[in-house]
Design brief:
By secondary structure, the chain is an all-alpha fold. It has one domain. The protein has three helices and no strands. The longest helix has 27 residues. The radius of gyration is 23 Å and the shape is elongated.
Length: 99
């Protein structure tokens, strides 16, 4: 019914969404009782940003999460390209191996 490529794409997409939700929630819980430095507190700004991410993912708007779909292929291809080592041997180059 579904191809393997579609299933893997769905699996990675779900994994990324779950990780974003998990880490945003953990950050909010961990930093809920921080010592606020005042009006321009950077921790409060990060908490606000994490709350906005959770709100956007919770509403199901495709426009807010569309950039993730653009970055997923690059995030998957770059590590694979760095790990690729071509298998080059003397036999592939047609070198005679005489004594």
């Amino acid at each position: 019914m579904y191809t393997r490529k579609q299933r893997m794409c769905a699996f990675f997409t779900c994994t990324i969404f779950i990780m974003v939700i998990l880490f945003s929630t953990l950050f909010i819980v961990k930093e809920a009782d921080h010592e606020c430095t005042g009006k321009d507190c950077p921790v409060c700004a990060c908490i606000h940003q994490a709350e906005q991410i959770l709100k956007q993912l919770g509403t199901g708007k495709t426009e807010s999460a569309a950039w993730i779909l653009v970055l997923i292929p690059f995030a998957l291809v770059i590590p694979c390209v760095l790990l690729f080592i071509p298998c080059v041997t003397l036999q592939n180059w047609k070198v005679r191996l005489d004594n």
